[in-house]
């Protein structure tokens, strides 16, 4: 009886240590100090959450935005912006994708002054699985990072109507030449 009790306590302690150790590793974290680049930027590192192939940042603060392109200086080749959503004051949403990896550093670019407070959401994805969701708040001097839980994978926005019109106009010469061929066949 004592042996099984000791075994149960030992297993519970081991499980607790694993949870604490993994939660300490699984987080986005700022790297170094914020730096001014016209507006300003902060370098971040995503690591300890396992493999991921997509990151997303979305502004929560009103009237504040990301400076284009929003994310830059990826530490691994093959990462790039695949979608962004402009607002009246800059970019409000940025999606970047690259080869799956377990550690990546990148700069987040902000409009405005480094002393202005702001809040944005960060998500990391591996395929369709959320591996991290966090809310990052800057008070003008320090970051507060809070884990927010899982969320729905972003779907890149539908192209603007002008893009679809341009695509249709590209098909216009093909349609005209088809009509000419059909008329020649009828005439013959």
Index terms:
single chain; 188 residues; alpha+beta; Immunoglobulin-like; 8-stranded antiparallel sheet; 2 helices; elongated
The largest β sheet comes out as: 8 strands, antiparallel
Helix content: 25-40%
How would the global form be characterised?
elongated
Total helical elements? 2
Based on CA atoms alone, the radius of gyration comes out at: 24 Å
Distance N to C terminus: 100 Å
Question: What is the strand tally?
Answer: 8
Q: Kindly estimate the percentage of residues that lie in beta strands according to DSSP.
A: over 45%
Explain how this protein is built.
The protein is α+β, with helices and mostly antiparallel strands. It has a domain at 27-157: Immunoglobulin-like. The protein is built from 2 helices and 8 strands. Strands 1, 2, 3, 4, 5, 6, 7 and 8 form an 8-stranded antiparallel β-sheet that branches. Strand 6 (118-126) and strand 7 (129-138) form a beta hairpin. The longest helix has 27 residues, at 161-187. It is elongated. The model is unreliable at 11-26 (pLDDT under 50).
What's this model, at a glance?
The chain has a domain at 27-157: Immunoglobulin-like, CATH 2.60.40. Helices cover 27% and strands 47% of the residues.
Question: Layout of SSEs?
Answer:
Blueprint: H1 2-25, E1 27-35, E2 40-59, E3 66-72, E4 80-87, E5 90-110, E6 118-126, E7 129-138, E8 143-147, H2 161-187
Antiparallel strand pairs: 1-2, 2-5, 2-6, 3-5, 4-5, 6-7, 7-8
